[in-house]
Design goal:
Number of strands: 10
Bound molecules: tricarbonodiimidic diamide
Shape: globular
Helix content: 25-40%
Strand order of the largest sheet: 7-4-3-8-9-10
């Protein structure tokens, strides 16, 4: 184990292929104007601070040949995996499946559902399409993501991406309940609401790492072997 300086105490990172870097939903639909995030009334520029730290972590993981897992929140074109309660929620300017400047909102295969070019997955990296906020719900049929991670020997997950208190937090909580040892990288995640990001990070690490650990990317990168 590698001890990474973290809160609330050092994170025990498993070297080799046991620790996957998880990049949650760094899609044009959340990060660029005209997408799903903007349709909800959000200022998408709030998310841009996470891009460079995620790129640095991707470079480090790729250099080591450690596993990388990207997620995309999106739905089938017929919206059969989008609950009406999700599509009909609130008063957005566009709803899931409606045509926008980057294609149909949150629909697989549309330009808006793509991961932003700066963080594009490489061949061989996992790309998980998820219809919910959490990465374990209704993904990787028929066996499920947990079984696939177990089969790959992955026991530790390092979380990055957007948004901290929605898809990152939900996925990290789902992972914690399944027995993964989870770290979230503070500057590699972002929210449309900085106060919610701070609150989510504080909640995750409270009570002796009740859900997991947090650390800045510099501390994580400096702890990894050259
Ligand atoms: N709206 C918001 O903050 N987030 C989402 O809807 N999905 C993700 O967090 N990816």
């Amino acid at each position: 184990m590698i001890a990474v300086d973290a809160e609330p105490f050092p994170y025990p990172l498993a070297p080799g292929g046991c620790t996957a870097l998880v990049v949650i939903d760094m899609q044009r639909d959340f990060v660029e104007p005209g997408g799903f995030g903007a349709s909800l009334g959000n200022d998408v520029t709030q998310l841009h601070t996470a891009i460079a730290p995620i790129a640095a972590l991707l470079a480090s993981w790729r250099q080591r040949g450690w596993p990388v897992l990207h997620t995309r929140e999106c739905h089938r074109p017929d919206l059969s995996d989008c609950p009406p309660a999700k599509r009909e929620r609130g008063s957005p300017t566009l709803r899931i499946g409606d045509p926008g400047p980057m294609g149909r909102l949150l629909v697989a295969g549309e330009p808006g559902a793509d991961i932003i070019p700066a963080l594009a997955p490489l061949p061989g990296e996992w790309v998980i399409d998820k219809p919910g906020k959490g990465m374990f719900w209704n993904t990787c049929a028929p066996d499920g993501l947990h079984a696939r991670l177990q089969a790959a020997g992955i026991t530790h997950l390092v979380f990055t991406g957007v948004t901290t208190e929605v898809c990152v937090q939900t996925s990290m909580r789902e992972a914690n309940d399944r027995g993964y040892t989870c770290l979230v990288v503070e500057d590699a995640t972002a929210s449309y609401f900085p106060a919610f990001k701070a609150a989510a990070l504080a909640m995750l690490v409270a009570q002796g790492a009740i859900v997991g650990w947090k650390t800045p990317s510099a501390a994580l990168l400096s702890a990894l072997p050259a």
